[in-house]
Amino acid sequence: MLTDLTIAGALAGLAARDFSATELTTAHLDAIAALNPQLNAFITVTPELALAQAAAADEARAKGHAGPLAGIPIAIKDLFCTKDVRTTAASHILDHFIPPYDSTVTAQLRAAGAVTLGKANLDEFAMGSSNMSSAYGPVENPWHRQGQATRLVPGGSSGGSAAVVAARLALGATGTDTGGSIRQPASFTGTVGMKPTYGRCSRYGIIAFASSLDQAGPMARTVEDCALMLAAMAGFDPRDSTSAERPVPDFAAACRHSVKGMRIGIPTEYAAPGMPAAITDIWQRGQNWLREQGAEIVEVSLPHTKYGVPTYYIVATAECSSNLARYDGVRFGERVEGEDLIDLYERTRAAGFGAEVKRRILLGTYVLSAGYYDAYYLRAQQVRQLILRDFTEVFSKVDALLTPTAPSAAFAIGEMMDDPVTMYLNDIFTVPASLAGVPAMSVPAGLDHQGLPLGLQVIGKHFDESSVFAVAAALERAAGFTATPSLMAGAKP
C-alpha cells in the first residue's frame, strides 16, 4: 500500500514514476477519512490544498525541477502558522484564527515540495504529555495493549503528529519540543522523533509556549526520513533572533556513518528508581547493539539531572505566563464581552483557556512575582546553567549519550490526569537535553510485555545532529523494529 511507504521509499517511487504525487496524496486522504474520526489526530484536514500541492509536485517533477520532498504528504502540528489555514494551538481562544502568513518551517517544507494534508492535534498550547488537554478532544494512540481494547494516549504535546505517522495517515509530520514533546510521543507510538539543537530551526511563526526552550523538529517512521525532513526545515532565519547562522549538513548521509570508534556515554542518573524492567532491559540491549558495532560504552555522570523537572517547570511556566498574556480578547483571541476592560479580560481568558494552561499561567505568574522571583525563577536559571555545564563537561569525553526516552510505555486515556506532578514526571528523561539546548532523538527499540513500543534516546553535542543520526541509525538497524499498531491505514479498526 502507498501509505506503508517511508519518505525515502516514496521519493524513489515518485522518481521512478511508479505512482504520482496525486495518487500518493489521495491514498493518505482516504486513510484519514477512514481513521481520523476514531483517532482524532487531525484538527483540520485540507484535502483541496493537498491535492493542489500534489498536482503542482507532479508538474514540477515532469519538468525536471522537483524539490527534495516533492509530493511527500505530511501533517503540520497545529502550532505552526499556515497561511489561509486555521491555526488553533488546540485552544478555544484561537478557534477562528486564520494566519495571513506561514511559519518559516512550513514555508520551507512547502518550498521543498511537501504536501500539507492538514493540521495535527496537540495538547493545548503544547502544554502536556498526553494530548489530553486539547480543546478539540484527546488523540487516541493507534497502538493497543495485547488483548485489550483500552484506549491509550499517544503522548504529548505532539501526540497528533505522532499518531498520524504511526497510523499511516501521513509519511511525516512536524512537531515542537519544549521539554520532550517530540521524543516522548515518538516513544509511545513506535515512531522516530528528532529535537534539533535550539536555534537549528526557526521559531518564526510557531505559536510560543516557552521561547527559550521551544524547538521545531521532524517526526517520521525511520531515522533517514527524519533526516530528509530536517534538511528542509533547518536553516538560518533573520526573522528569528535565536536562529543560528550555521550551514545545514547532509543529515541523510550521516545516517550511513559507522559508529565504530565512537564513545557513547551512559548517564548513571537516568537509572530512575522504580523504572520498569522492560525499559532497563531495552536500554541495556541498546548498549550491546552499539558495542557490537564498534562503539565504546562509557559510564558518565550528569549530577544535576535530578533537578531537571522542577527547573524546567519553573522556567517553562514563567515564559508561558509572559507569552500567553497577549491572548486577552483585544489583541489576540476570541472575545467574551464584559462590563469593563478587566471583566472582558477575565471572561475571555476563563472561557478561552483550558485547565492545564490556566494552571501553568498561574504557576508562572507566581514564580515571577516580586516576592518569589529570586527564590524560584532566578534559582531555576542558575540550576539550568549547571545542567548545561554537566552536558558540556560530559561531551568533552564522549560523542553522544544513550538513555531511555520515557519512564513508561503509553498509558491509558484518563490515567494520571488527576495528578499533574505524576504527569510532569513523564518528562524526566527528556527535559535535561531541552534545558541544555542540545539535540536529541527517540528511536523505537522494541516492545514491552504488553506489546507496546519503547524508545531509546540519543543525545548529542550542540549542532552535532549528524552524530545523533549516525547513532540512532545504528540502533535502528540493530533493533529491526517492524511492529505496527493495530489501528492503521489498511488494518481493521
Detail the topology: elements first, then pairings.
Layout: H1 7-15, H2 21-39, E1 42-45, H3 47-62, E2 73-77, H4 104-111, E3 115-120, H5 159-166, E4 172-177, H6 183-189, E5 192-195, E6 215-220, H7 223-233, H8 251-254, E7 263-267, H9 277-292, E8 296-300, H10 308-323, H11 341-352, H12 355-368, H13 373-394, E9 400-404, H14 420-424, H15 431-436, E10 440-447, E11 453-460, H16 465-479
Parallel strand pairs: 2-3, 2-4, 7-8, 7-9
Antiparallel strand pairs: 1-3, 4-6, 5-6, 5-10, 9-11, 10-11
Helix pairs in contact: 2-3, 5-6, 10-12, 10-13
Distance separating the two termini: 17 Å
What is the tally of helical segments?
16
Main structural class: alpha/beta
Domain module tally: 1
CATH superfamily: Amidase signature (AS) domain
Average pLDDT reading: 95
Gyration radius, in Å: 21 Å
Query: Judging by the overall fold, what is the CATH architecture?
Result: Alpha-Beta Complex
Tell me the number of strands: 11
Strand content: 5-15%
Arrangement of strands in the largest sheet:
1-3-2-4-6-5-10-11-9-7-8
Predict the CATH topology. Answer: Amidase signature (AS) enzymes
Model regions low in confidence, pLDDT < 50 over at least 5 residues: none
Q: How would a textbook summarize the main sheet?
A: 11 strands, mixed
Helical content band: 25-40%
The CATH class label is Alpha Beta
**How would you sum up the global shape?**
globular
